[in-house]
Amino acid sequence: MARYRAFAAEQGVTRLPWWYMVDPKATTQHGLVQLDTLEPYQRFLYHAVTCEPQALEQGDTRAFLAPGACRPMLTQVILKDPVCTTHQLAGVMMLERMACTPKDALPGLANTLLQDIEQQMGWDVVLKDAYLQRVMMLMWQGRPGRLKPVWLHRVYQAQQPDGGWAGGRQLPELPQWAQPWMLRAQLARWWPSRFHAGAGSDFHASAQGLLIAALALQELR
Predict the structure, then answer these.
(1) Sign of CA dihedral 24, 26, 31, 34
(2) What is the pTM for the complete model shown?
(3) How confident is residue 110, by pLDDT bands cut at 50, 70 and 90?
């Protein structure tokens, strides 16, 4: 960790507000981030680490403090943004960690979002980056009782030979040749200039998979 902090300081990362996620007591500079390049959920996370609401196309990031920000789930999550609720919950957790709002200012919001995530797990059974993120948030929020053993087992089944996780669509119960990403992999072999195989481990999915594993081990202690 000391080596990582030293490297981050050398690269100037510790001056960015995002560093609050690592060290809530850090001294950072808020003007270093180009807010107009951020997605709405990223602006909410920025709000969470700086305690400063940020403008959206309509209103501001305080819209994420309402339980219906990612509802109706059919359009807002399933069809539009599969990680809308998990990103919202991450922001709420960070707001509470940074003490941006009183503890009683968001009554039941985290629990409501966890219930929504549970519903999404029942609807969206294809294992992909969003699936990993939902499992991670159910565990990270300290609600292991909400997690069905089969969900965790599927995450472990999806671990790649190199130890990481892939963000592409998978059904761990099926053999490799029947995986949803196999067609894309074949197309990539035929037309490499137009298609990307996307079947290997990637950083984002692997980071989530490793955190899930760490949280599961901690729960067993």
Answers:
(1) negative
(2) 0.86
(3) very high
